[in-house]
Every structure is written in C-alpha cells, then in structure tokens.
C-alpha cells in the first residue's frame, strides 16, 4: 500500500463521479470526450482546492521581496563577523526582520504541499491506463477507459510510435503542453521573479528553466499514457491563466512585472 493511496482514491472518486454525471446527461460512457471531461474535472477541482496555498505562496513571495533589501543590509553589517555573539545577534535580527515583514520560515510549504497531489494524479492515470482498478474506478469503468479513444488513439496508449494518427495525437498533446509551459515560464513567471543581486550562474539557470520544462514534457510524451498528456494540457492551461493573473495584478515587488505595472 502506498502513502499516496488515499489521495489517489479521492481523485478516482472525482473521476468516477464526473463520468457518471456526464453519462447521465446522455454522453457515451465509452467515448474519449466523456473521459476527457472527467480528467478536466479533476484538474479544476484540485486546482480550486489548492488556491489557498497559491495565495499564501504569492503573499510569501511579496513578503520576501519586501524584506530582501533589509536582509542584504543586515548581511553587510555582519560581514566577516563569525564570533558566537555576532552570529546570535545576526540570527535574532534576521528573525525580527522576518517577523516584521511577515516572512515565514515555512515559505516553501505551499509548493511542497502540492507535490503529493501531482504524484497521486500521475499514479492514478498510469494505473488506470494499465488496466488496474483504483478506488471508485471499478473494473467496468477501467474497461470503459481502456476502450476510450481520441481521434482513434486509445487514452491508455503510450509513446510516439503506432502510426500516423497515433503520432499526430501524441505529438500534438505533448507539443501543446510543452508550448503552454514554455510561454508560462518565459513570459509570465520569469518577469515576475526578482533577479537583482542574483549570481550570474543563477540567472543563467533561470533562463534555461522554460526550455527544460518544455523539453521534459516532449520527452515524457514518449512514455506516458495519452490520458496523462491530456491532463498535462488541461493543467498547463490552468497554470498559464493563474500565472497571467498574478503577473498582471499581483506581481512580486521589485520584479520586471511590478515595475511595468508601476509605469502604467
């Protein structure tokens, strides 16, 4: 039994419930569109549930940006002083600055809390694509999922091989997810990042992140199920929209996006 099983079973219940609801409205239970709507419902519900963590993460980014100049001056004040008394004073003043600006020592927690959900979603779709039942996704539903297709390509199919139609669907989904990811990282996330005082190496790494993210999706497209590629497209669209809202109306202080907003 995996520690992700409770989450996977909860997500399976969402998929099964959505599938039943769409079918009750007259949709074909074995149609690819019915199952794609079920997958999209998981994306929407999960991302809505995670919005409080996203809001907290944005607030923490703003707090850290406001505290950064003060922390820099504090580091300069204690530069070269390594005696115990100076170190204790430095840590105490750093703690006070963090409390003053609302910086949490658990600032990365909102992002980390989302990782188990992403992993559970991956395992759920991977297991069902392999014909394994998961929670509310009974053998009948798993068989229905296995029979569902998109433009003639099974949702449970893997890889870029398998003929022209298969390649077109897989490459199209993987390429769409990759392009959306690149646009999000390059044009929405990077401009909302404070790069002042960052080492040249770190700046170079940040510039590579959009390409690495997009390239990773293209490579993974050769091994993951078509259903997971469809999930990535839906999730990438949500992430892009969410990043656009933050970039436009809630940019990190000191970032290029914030400077642009101040000039408007």
TrEMBL record:
Q: Respond yes or no to whether keyword Transmembrane helix is given for this record.
A: yes
Q: How does it sit in the membrane?
A: Multi-pass membrane protein
Keyword Zinc-finger, does the record have it? no
Q: Which InterPro entries match?
A: YidC/ALB3/OXA1/COX18, YidC/Oxa/ALB_C
UniProt keywords, alphabetically = Membrane, Transmembrane, Transmembrane helix
Segments spanning the bilayer are 36-58, 103-125, 137-157, 164-183, 208-233
Q: Where is the protein situated, by its record's location annotation?
A: Membrane
Where does the Membrane insertase YidC/Oxa/ALB C-terminal domain start and stop, copy by copy? 35-248
The family annotation for this protein states: Belongs to the OXA1/ALB3/YidC family. Type 1 subfamily.
Assembly and interactions? Interacts with the Sec translocase complex via SecD. Specifically interacts with transmembrane segments of nascent integral membrane proteins during membrane integration.
User: What does the UniProt record say this protein does?
Assistant: Required for the insertion and/or proper folding and/or complex formation of integral membrane proteins into the membrane. Involved in integration of membrane proteins that insert both dependently and independently of the Sec translocase complex, as well as at least some lipoproteins. Aids folding of multispanning membrane proteins.
Name of the protein this chain belongs to? Membrane protein insertase YidC
């Amino acid at each position: 039994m995996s520690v992700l099983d409770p989450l996977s079973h909860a997500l399976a219940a969402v998929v099964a419930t959505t599938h039943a609801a769409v079918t009750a409205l007259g949709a074909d239970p074995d149609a690819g569109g019915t199952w794609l709507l079920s997958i999209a419902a998981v994306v929407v519900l999960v991302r809505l549930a995670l919005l409080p963590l996203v809001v907290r993460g944005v607030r923490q980014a703003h707090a850290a940006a406001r505290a950064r100049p003060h922390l820099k001056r504090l580091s300069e004040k204690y530069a070269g002083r390594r005696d115990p008394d100076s170190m204790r004073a430095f840590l105490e003043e750093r703690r006070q600055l963090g409390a003053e600006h609302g910086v949490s020592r658990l600032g990365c927690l909102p992002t980390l809390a989302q990782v188990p959900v992403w992993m559970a979603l991956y395992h759920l779709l991977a297991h069902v694509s392999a014909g394994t039942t998961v929670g509310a996704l009974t053998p009948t539903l798993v068989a229905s999922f296995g029979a569902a297709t998109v433009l003639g390509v099974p949702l449970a199919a893997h890889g870029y091989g398998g003929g022209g139609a298969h390649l077109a669907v897989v490459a199209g989904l993987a390429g769409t997810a990759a392009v959306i990811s690149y646009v999000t990282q390059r044009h929405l996330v990077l401009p909302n990042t404070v790069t002042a005082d960052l080492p040249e190496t770190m700046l170079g790494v940040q510039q590579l992140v959009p390409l690495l993210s997009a390239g990773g999706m293209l490579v993974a497209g050769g091994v993951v199920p078509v259903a997971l590629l469809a999930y990535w497209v839906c999730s990438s669209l949500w992430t892009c929209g969410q990043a656009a809202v933050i970039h436009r109306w809630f940019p990190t202080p000191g970032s290029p996006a914030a400077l642009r907003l101040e000039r408007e």
